[in-house]
Backbone:
């Protein structure tokens, strides 16, 4: 998606990046913003500690902005503010990704029950999914000014997503997945694309500023 919308020299911001962010897939330099970085951020990301609701950047400071798996960790009354801040600092296109819909939440609830049944520590991200329900929806983007064009599509089969999350309970399986991703990326990309079918777990929303060339 970003490759289609941005040039190689365009500036990029990831909101809620964590210490690595899209650096797993994006080879160019980018700014990563998060409330805190528990471990040392990794290149090529340039880290900035800040809240998604008050970004310390000028208007249209970046050509592109990514907000992936962030909105579901934000209280309902602050989600609109996150969207507005991301759009304030972007010049061309912002991409939002988040789990959406009651079925996605139900499968996350099942995942929580699996952790509890196995008496394993629940990941913080999963606890926040349960706490800040319901999941975000397209309604967050319904009342944007006319200068914005909004498109959306669904992503990642909900059953496949749940299976992948359950594999993270086993450290060896995680290592095997990372090894396959590093050694046969084309095959892994094919498998992930094959699993991209209904019923879906995630919603991808692309918001473009009208009249700005890509």
Residues:
């Amino acid at each position: 998606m970003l490759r289609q919308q941005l040039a190689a020299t365009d500036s990029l911001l990831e909101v809620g990046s964590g210490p690595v962010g899209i650096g797993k897939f994006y080879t160019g330099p980018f700014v990563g913003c998060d409330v805190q970085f528990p471990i040392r951020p990794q290149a090529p990301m340039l880290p900035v500690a800040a809240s998604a609701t008050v970004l310390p950047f000028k208007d249209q400071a970046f050509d592109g902005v990514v907000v992936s798996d962030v909105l579901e960790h934000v209280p309902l009354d602050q989600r609109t503010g996150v969207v507005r801040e991301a759009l304030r600092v972007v010049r061309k296109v912002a991409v939002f990704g988040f789990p959406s819909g009651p079925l996605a939440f139900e499968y996350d609830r099942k995942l929580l029950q699996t952790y509890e049944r196995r008496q394993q520590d629940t990941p913080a991200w999963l606890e926040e999914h349960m706490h800040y329900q319901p999941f975000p929806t397209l309604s967050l983007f319904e009342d944007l000014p006319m200068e914005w064009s909004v498109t959306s599509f669904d992503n990642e089969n909900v059953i496949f997503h749940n299976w992948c999350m359950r594999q993270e309970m086993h450290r060896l399986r995680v290592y095997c997945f990372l090894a396959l991703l590093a050694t046969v990326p084309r095959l892994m990309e094919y498998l992930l694309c094959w699993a991209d079918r209904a019923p879906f777990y995630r919603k991808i929303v692309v918001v473009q500023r009208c009249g700005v060339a890509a």
